[in-house]
Amino acid sequence: MATTSPPPEIEYPPKGRIEPVDDHTEIDQFWDSDTGATTAEYAITTLAACGFAALLVVVLKSEPIKELITGVISTALGLGS
């Protein structure tokens, strides 16, 4: 199972000044194990959005809310008393 913790040979957090390097292989290897995180985050966000949408549908189908929305629309269109 891949984790996002740094390999033991990489000092984390680095102490002192970090010198620029031309070879980014070590950095690429460090972040390579984190490739599936974005997909998982999108999946959780999508599930949360679907749950919120389902809750909204249930609330909007209730009779008191229907009457409230109908009253607001009727008043806005000048059909209300």
TrEMBL record:
Region (Disordered): 1-21
UniProt biased composition (Basic and acidic residues): 12-21
The organism's place on the tree of life at top rank: Bacteria
Membrane-traversing stretches: 42-60
Pfam families associated with the record: DUF4244
Coiled coil: none
Keywords on record: Membrane, Transmembrane, Transmembrane helix
Record's compositionally biased regions (Pro residues): 1-11
Keyword Manganese tagged: no
InterPro entries: DUF4244
Signal peptide boundaries: none
Keyword Transmembrane helix found: yes
Protein name: DUF4244 domain-containing protein
